[in-house]
Amino acid sequence: MGVGKAILAVTATVSLVFPAHPIFDHALPKLSDYGFFKAPINEQIPISGVIPYTIASELFSDYAEKLRFIKVPNNKSISHNDDLSFNYPDGTFLIKTFYYPSDIRDPDSDRRLIETRLLKKTGSEWLAMPYVWNNEQTEAVLALAGDRTEVSWIHSDGKPISILYSVPNLNQCKSCHVYNNVQQPIGPKVRNLNLNFSYDDIPMNQLDKWISVGILEPFDDKILLPRTVNYMDAHDGSLDQRARAWLDINCAHCHRRGGPAETSGLYLEVEETDPTALGIFKPPVAAGRGSGDLKYNIVPGHPEESIMDFRIRSRDPGIMMPELNRKLVHKEGVELIQAWIKHMPERK
Amino acid sequence: MQFIRSIIILKFTFSLCLAEFEKDLQLQLILAEPGDTIKLSSGLFPILGTLSMEGKENIVIKGTGMNSTTLNFSTQVEGAQGLSITNCKNIILEDFTVQNAKGDAIKCQYVDGITFRRVKAQWLGGPKSTNGAYGLYPVQCENVLIEHCVAIAASDAGIYVGQSKNIIVRFSEAFENVAGIEIENSTKADVYGNNVHGNTGGILVFDLPDLVVKEGKQIRIFDNIIKKNNIDNFAPEGNIVAKVPSGTGIMVMATEQVEIFGNTIIDNKTAGTAIVSYFITEEETKDTQYNPYTSSIYVHDNIYRREPQIPTLDHDIGLLLFTRFYKDVPDIIYDGMPDPKHLGAGGYIPNSRRLCIASNVDADYLNLEISKNFESWYSPFFAEFKTDINECECEQEPIPEVVLDID
Q: What total of structural domains would you count in chain A?
């Protein structure tokens, strides 16, 4: 309660002090100022033109649930390139709300909204704008310096969990969203969107929906569009595909050529084919105690000898991967990566 | 306006409680505009998360002194670095200390023009493998100046410049680190006037495979005092520096064009100066663009002094040296692996491409000839070593001075 107000106060003061900062040309003080949602906005029911979506494989963020929306300016649409990357029109918003149900096993249990992150396309850049929900759940206010807040819920095993949840600050947003020095979205790619979503209880492929409402230009019929598997669904794709999907969404925004972790030489995009770049018998570069006294990132057949497993299992800020946005271990993800490494053919 | 602004910044800086200090400082780092100086007041400030600056130009972050302004990360709960500076131009860090970061103390990536001046990176309580990896850590930067800085007890390198270009590290002190100063996969570096003592290895110049930026070259190490770098290696296994023998003064690995001169190299128990190829690590690499050899290495006009003492027994090379030389280990140790691409007719290598050793005071020499002794070189009783320093007597053109392009 106090925290939210303090942030609002500090942010307001700062906007008086630093009026020239470009963020203030775009960032409105409160989430409701944008008019994305019908009142009361905590129900997160979008107005017409704000379209909900989901992605095939999700970034783990301490078991927070997410609601995603896109708003493309009227009469504009997203075009795409031969490599299926998107060109978003200026003024496009990607909206993502993080929340916790009081009981994660029951989707209808009371939910607490924590933060809503906006990405706005402005010229060649995307601006990231974090908004933090107040305790009354009536409003979310701009929090450029991020925030930390205590969150509790009943977990899937029926046990209560409580963590100090971190809302990333403006720079932390960029630390994941940067690619070749330009801030961009991570999740919405063709292969992540190519699945059904329930629109008012009517399921429809998301790409088809976007095309039908005119925010996405149609694809050439002859192209077979790729789809990322859902790593949480043991029946979707192979073990290798699921593990690579998990690494792609959780790690590859940094661990790719042109990404912030390119100095490590470890590249985890789903398209990567070089075994050394994927970590197989690759010694660490600047891992420090992140190596966990292990010699290689991945030792096929032996997760217990693999730095990758050690770091995704850790909760020590100096060791754990990803570095940000996680206080807990993603148990399901770790089990998946362990199984993947275990089933790799042993060789030397 | 400027007046009001500085009052408000002062209010931020001296604000009521410590958590506010962190939030205010982070906000200033986010909102700073070109030409701003972010002032840190005197005091010991506990910080819970990585402080970060991103995409800025012409900013100074300035404390009141490395012994009076301290950012302490002992209770850090998130982020791996203390201070992280990315994608910036012309940044100056001055007069403060970063203590006990969970990972690296100050990491700068993609910064053109980064100055560390009178900045200290420290882990309290001395060498421990649980300390963070790097103290001052510019990577993929250009125009790097590190001067009058101090780095203490990093579990990898106290001052580490990696995958960077145009670098000066001078008048700084590094002790109780695994590596005092390390220049890795970097081009054009001058490292001089530093006092590097009590580390596992003093100054390392490495080139490693499988990285975006490779082929480090044109490095000058001169006028440094490199003394008693004899502490046990406490780097976590897996890291390349975990392979550095305790008692190493200077080590050049797989790099070309390195000039080492005017240094005072005293009482490093295992290797005053080691010139080695990547093969010494016994690691394989599939990186076809990587050159594992050293070439064009010029070691001249250094002073070597070494009291008779036992080299490290914690390392194969130390054991070998001990068995063969007991307490009188040679100062300059070469693995005898020249770059085959420079081999001319009859196995002759032009002077400009070899290891040249000239005009040192009290230097003796050992060539391990690991190419010939490859099967048995760790078996000191059978291996044939060369110890005649005259085989390296030659001179090379000096490497040009580094000129930084910093406004």
A: 2
Q: Closest by alpha carbon to B162, among B143, B146, B142, B186?
A: B186
pTM: 0.86
Contacts of A174 in chain B (CB under 8 A): 54-55, 86
With CA atoms as reference, the chain B residue closest to A3 would be: B20
pLDDT at A147: 87
Tell me which DSSP letter residue A264 carries. G
A284 and A206 within one domain: no
Output DSSP code: residue B372. Answer: T
**Looking at the structure, do residues A195 and A306 belong to the same domain, yes or no?**
no
Given an 8 Å threshold on Cβ–Cβ distance, is A166 in contact with B133?
no
Task: Check whether residue A200 and residue A252 sit in a common domain.
Answer: no
Of B31, B131, B132, the CB nearest to A14: B31
- B355 within 8 A of B335, measured Cβ to Cβ: no
Restricting to B residues 333-372, those with a Cβ less than 8 Å away from any Cβ of A are none
Burial class (CB in 10 A: 0-12, 13-18, 19+), B19: middle
Do A208 and A249 lie in a common domain? no
- Within 183-202 of B, beta carbons closer than 8 Å to A belong to none
Give the rounded percent of residues in chain B with a pLDDT score beyond 90.
78
Under 8 Å CB-to-CB from A331, ≥6 apart: which residues? none
- Does residue A230 lie within any of the structural domains? no
| Dihedral pair phi/psi, residue A280, rounded to 5° | -70, 120
Annotate B93-134 with DSSP letters as a single string.
EEEEEEE--SS-SEEEEEEEEEEEEEEEEE-TTS--TTS-S-
Task: Average the pLDDT over B395-399 and give the result.
Answer: 96
Q: Over 70: is that where the pLDDT of B71 sits?
A: yes
A window 3-62, beta carbon within 8 A of B:
10, 13-14, 17-18, 20-21, 23
Same domain, A273 and A187: no
Angle, CA of A74, A75 and A80, to the nearest 5°: 110
Statement to judge: residues A193 and A266 lie in one domain: no
Which domain range does residue A184 map to? 2-212
**Which residues of B are less than 8 Å from A296 in CB distance?**
238
For testing the chain A interface, which of B25, B87, B163, B186 should be mutated: the one with the most A CBs within 10 Å?
A: B87
Q: Which amino acid is at A244?
A: R
CA angle B21–B24–B26, rounded 5-degree value: 105
Question: Over the stretch A115-136, which tens digit does the pLDDT of each residue have?
Answer: 999 999 998 889 999 999 999 9
Q: How many CB pairs under 8 A join A and B?
A: 155
Is residue A60 domain-shared with residue A156, that is, in the same domain?
Answer: yes
The tokens describing B275, both together, are 């010139």
Q: Is residue A233 part of a domain?
A: no
Token couple for A263? 């100095």
Q: How far apart are the first and last CA of chain B?
A: 27
**Least Cα separation, residue A39 to chain B (angstroms):** 31
A348: exposed, middle or buried (C-beta count within 10 Å: 0-12, 13-18, 19+)?
A: exposed
Same domain for A62 and A190, yes or no, is yes
Q: Is residue A225 part of a domain?
A: no
Look at residue A266 in the predicted model and tell me its pLDDT: 94
A318–B26 C-beta distance less than 8 A: no
In a domain, A227, yes or no: no
Residue A300 and residue A341 in contact, taking contact as beta carbons nearer than 8 Å: yes
d(CA A247, CA A226): 17
